[in-house]
Write a structure and sequence with these properties.
11 helices, mainly alpha
Length: 295
């Protein structure tokens, strides 16, 4: 990564660090505080090891969802930020290219922030898991819990989620960049125009011409995004159900994570994914064009 691009990423951190820290730290802190309120009961059909793992991964998933939604809500406004605060002349005077100036906030909000949410969620998930075990079974239950096994099971799953976040961003790139292009050119009307355009266009093609092509394309992108995060949910369920059958939990979890990652990578050969990247590339070029004519 060159110095110019790292400087642009630093700009994103300096401008958004307060909001990012609140998004990353406030929800899990609230979860921890709630441990001291009310009662907690476990599922009698789930082992203690399984419950601890569920607590960790539930925290990771919840924080990832909150952070990703927050980032998606902010992104449409970022393409107009320099024009709105009248700083575009300053940023255009720097040696950074238009493509770097656009790619930096996209990378920071759509990829780096969700990745950070997974890591922060993992750390807090361990604390929340310990707290819930103590709350349900006391200190003796916490001392008897095989925490090394919990770590060995959860770490491959978390690594799989990290990899899935990157693939998810690639699958959703065309839809996201279409919204950004519309926001850059149409300002606050960009998102409504995209939603109405896709909805009405898809409805007209389907009802009057018998061509559900819009729905099929959207469904393909959705399926690809879901498989990017979890390609084989049935096999994961089988692995979790067999936690008490032996002591090779970590090896089985690592093997599943590797196989599921490879299955997700195989999905990248889909024409829908390749076509989506071409659409995303075209939209990115339009964003560069718009920025180059900002002054």
């Amino acid at each position: 990564m060159n110095h110019r691009f790292s400087t642009l990423l630093l700009r994103e951190w300096m401008q958004h660090k307060r909001g990012w820290l609140v998004t990353l730290l406030l929800p899990p802190t609230i979860f921890l505080a709630l441990l001291f309120i009310g009662s907690a009961e476990g599922n009698p059909d789930t082992s203690a090891l399984g419950m601890a793992l569920i607590f960790v991964m539930a925290t990771v998933g919840t924080l990832l969802a909150i952070t990703w939604l927050s980032a998606m809500l902010q992104l449409p406004g970022l393409v107009r930020r320099d024009q709105q605060d009248r700083s575009v002349e300053f940023w255009l005077s720097l040696p950074a290219s238009h493509s770097e100036s656009i790619a930096a906030p996209l990378l920071a909000h759509a990829v780096l922030m969700p990745l950070a949410a997974v890591l922060v969620g993992y750390g807090f998930g361990a604390l929340i898991s310990i707290g819930l075990v103590i709350k349900m079974g006391g200190w003796a239950a916490a001392a008897a819990m095989p925490w090394v096994s919990v770590l060995g099971l959860s770490l491959p799953l978390v690594l799989r989620v990290l990899f899935g976040v990157v693939l998810l961003s690639l699958w959703l790139a065309p839809l996201l960049l279409i919204v950004l292009v519309a926001s850059a050119w149409l300002k606050r009307f960009g998102l409504p125009v995209v939603v109405l355009g896709l909805g009405l266009g898809g409805l007209l093609l389907d009802k009057f011409y018998g061509l559900p092509v819009v729905w099929q394309l959207l469904q393909a992108q959705q399926d690809g995004a879901l498989k990017a995060m979890l390609a084989d949910p049935d096999r994961l369920h089988t692995q979790l159900a067999a936690l008490d059958e032996g002591s090779t939990h970590a090896f089985r979890a690592a093997a599943w994570a590797l196989q599921d990652s490879l299955s997700a990578v195989q999905q990248l050969a889909s024409p829908h994914f390749i076509g989506g990247l071409l659409v995303a590339g075209g939209c990115f070029a339009l964003l560069v064009l718009k920025r180059s004519h900002s002054v």
